[in-house]
Amino acid sequence: MASNLLVLLVLVASSAFLKADGKLSPDYYSCKCPKASSIVEAEVRAAIDHETRIGASLLRLHFHDCFVNGCDASILLDDTGSFVGEKTAGPNNNSARGFDVVDDIKAKLEKTCPGVVSCADILALAARDSTVYLGGPSWKVGLGRRDSLTANRTAANTFLPSPTFNLSALVSSFAVQGLSFKNMVALSGSHTIGRARCISFRARIYTESSIDSSFAKSRQRKCPASGDDNNIAPLDIRTSTHFDIQYYKNLLNKRGLLHSDQELYNGTSADSLVKKYSTDTTVFFRDFARAMVKMGKIKPLTGREGEIRINCRKVNS
Ligand code: HEM
Ligand SMILES: *[C@@H]1O[C@H](CO)[C@@H](O)[C@H](O)[C@H]1NC(C)=O
Ligand SMILES: *[C@@H]1O[C@H](CO)[C@@H](O)[C@H](O)[C@H]1NC(C)=O
Ligand SMILES: *[C@@H]1O[C@H](CO)[C@@H](O)[C@H](O)[C@H]1NC(C)=O
Ligand SMILES: *[C@@H]1O[C@H](CO)[C@@H](O)[C@H](O)[C@H]1NC(C)=O
């Protein structure tokens, strides 16, 4: 009897400990809003069926959210009188997209379970669902994030990595977030989908030497030496709508579109991991999924912190 009680006490105490430690849980909404994940998935699929690229844009939104004061949906806030939002920070301005899709998903969720599902969790689920629908790996998304009450454009400019970064700068910008070298190389594999603007890769295609010359020439056709900054090109020259290992194969052929991409295969300690991923889908998918879970855990607001926004673009009044 007494020992049963002891076992019970230990179980209760350890589960409380696990909860405090783990913070996010994949079944966070299973009672509060059992349809939450299926609603997000259906909307993401419909959005991708409408425009394939939006899957890439949604994956990137979660990254750009998490790297700026944690995964708290701060990127979704419009400017207000009291703060300037992150949407016009250098890495986001004329570039971050998918905000309308997030609004649509949120509207559907508000109809089914008003005030329950956070915008930060929508971004995490949409990133996973996009990856899966485009042929990539799946993972369990920890849930229970809450939404920030503010945003910070300076922080977005400070913490989001630039395509001009060299390898050590890339490593540092991930290390600041608690992400490893391997996490960085795996997460960069996101560039197997989606597009970039001319302004993001102009210097590379006109001035660099570790670039395949026919690749450089073909990219120059729609990205002149000056002007047309917003013309876009696929990050993966071969299969930019499929989540696969082609990105790494491109790097081996000096066909990385961004300077930061090619930095991962340029005669350094990163080469061996890129080579590995370029031939092994299973290992890349495993490492990518693990890294996404880790990225999704960056400084979430939980418990009574922040709020559940009703409209992802603005703080509740
Ligand atoms: C390693 C450092 C990284 C740098 C320097 C970087 C930089 C960039 C740049 C410059 C673009 C093109 C933006 C434009 O020209 O409009 C881009 C696109 C993209 N990035 Fe990254 N990125 C990095 C890591 C990541 C990570 C970790 C993810 C996701 C986990 C990611 C996902 C994407 C996706 C999916 C796109 C295409 C978006 C679209 O087509 O709308 N990137 N990135
Ligand atoms: C964002 O882009 C717009 C349109 O190109 C430009 O007018 C504006 O100055 C940019 N904002 C910032 C903060 O750079
Ligand atoms: C915004 O972020 C910058 C860079 O991290 C920081 O120095 C600044 O204090 C932040 N501003 C506010 C109001 O938190
Ligand atoms: C990488 O870039 C940083 C910051 O621009 C610079 O200080 C450093 O010397 C560069 N490292 C290498 C190896 O080029
Ligand atoms: C690759 O290495 C060369 C020689 O060290 C360097 O000039 C270049 O900036 C590096 N990165 C890329 C993407 O070419």
UniProtKB/TrEMBL annotation:
Ca(2+) 2 binds at residues 192, 236, 239, 244. Keywords: Calcium, Disulfide bond, Glycoprotein, Heme, Hydrogen peroxide, Iron, Metal-binding, Oxidoreductase, Peroxidase, Secreted, Signal. The record marks 60 as: Transition state stabilizer. Ca(2+) 1 binds at residues 65, 68, 70, 72, 74, 86. It comes from the Eukaryota. Disulfide bonds join 33-113, 66-71, 119-312, 198-223. It catalyses: 2 a phenolic donor + H2O2 = 2 a phenolic radical donor + 2 H2O. Heme b binds at residue 191. One of its GO terms (biological process) is response to oxidative stress. It is an enzyme of class 1 (oxidoreductase). Pfam families: peroxidase. Residues 23-316 form the Plant heme peroxidase family profile domain. It is found in: Secreted. Its cofactor is heme b; Ca(2+). The keyword Secreted applies. InterPro entries: Haem_peroxidase (IPR002016), Haem_peroxidase_sf (IPR010255), Peroxidase_pln (IPR000823), Peroxidases_AS (IPR019794), Secretory_peroxidase (IPR033905). Its main location: secreted. Its EC number is 1.11.1.7. CDD domains: secretory_peroxidase (cd00693). Residues 1-20 form the signal peptide. Substrate binds at residue 161. GO terms for molecular function: heme binding; lactoperoxidase activity; metal ion binding. Removal of H(2)O(2), oxidation of toxic reductants, biosynthesis and degradation of lignin, suberization, auxin catabolism, response to environmental stresses such as wounding, pathogen attack and oxidative stress. These functions might be dependent on each isozyme/isoform in each plant tissue. Belongs to the peroxidase family. Classical plant (class III) peroxidase subfamily. This is Peroxidase.
